[in-house]
Design a protein that fits this description.
By secondary structure, this protein is α+β, with helices and mostly antiparallel strands. The chain has a single domain, classed as Glutaredoxin. The chain is built from four helices and four strands; from the N terminus they run αβαβαββα. Strands 2-1-3-4 form a four-stranded mixed sheet, with helices on both faces. The chain is globular.
């Protein structure tokens, strides 16, 4: 009898611990699809993964604003604060190691370049130009 109770308990435990993970996987998938869909309307989607509380990330903020303004209609700029509950799934989706991390997606939504750390504007523009941004 004790063996049956123990097996039932183990089965219940495994079921309960696996279900939350399944729900998270689905939400990550839909978030990734959202970023990919956004990429289709632009030559490049520039995804900045960082935090508003990180010094190098703060230095990237004016660069992101300039890129968004100077290349409107060609480049979509997306920022995810990975130190918040809303942004944290994107750290896993994009498999980042450090912040800031910049990920560049082409018009098909495929990653074509990645950079870790502060990224000077003139170097960043060279990466955008690889996909026809003028």
């Amino acid at each position: 009898m004790n063996g049956k109770i123990m097996r039932a308990f183990v089965l219940l435990f495994l079921t309960c611990s696996l279900l939350p993970g399944c729900g998270q996987a689905n939400s990550k998938s839909s978030e990734t699809e959202k970023t990919t869909v956004e990429a289709e309307n632009y030559l490049v989607t520039f995804v900045e993964l960082g935090s508003v509380r990180c010094i190098p990330c703060k230095l990237m903020q004016p660069i992101m604003k300039d890129i968004e303004k100077d290349y409107a209609g060609q480049v979509k700029v997306v920022f995810h604060d990975v130190w918040t509950p809303e942004g944290e799934p994107f750290a896993q989706t994009f498999k980042i190691r450090v912040i800031p991390t910049q990920v560049f997606l082409d018009k098909e939504g495929e990653e074509y370049f990645r950079h870790e750390g502060f990224f000077p504007k003139d170097e960043l523009i060279k990466i955008l130009q690889q996909k026809g941004v003028k």
